Amino acid sequence: MFKQISCGLALVGGLTLAAAEMANAQQRNDQFSKPKNLKVLPEDISSSDLRETMRQFSFATGIRCSGCHVAKEGAPLSDWNFKSDEKEQKRIAREMLKLTAIINETVTEIDDVDAAQAVKVRCMTCHRGIEQPKLIQDVLDEYKVKNDATGAVTHYREIREIYYGSHAYDFTPFTLGEYAHTAQVDGATEFSFALHDLNLELHPDDDRPYVAWGNTLMQTEDFAGALKAYQKAVELNPDAAFYRQLVERAETTIAAQE
Question: pTM, whole model, 2 decimals?
Answer without folding.
Answer: 0.79
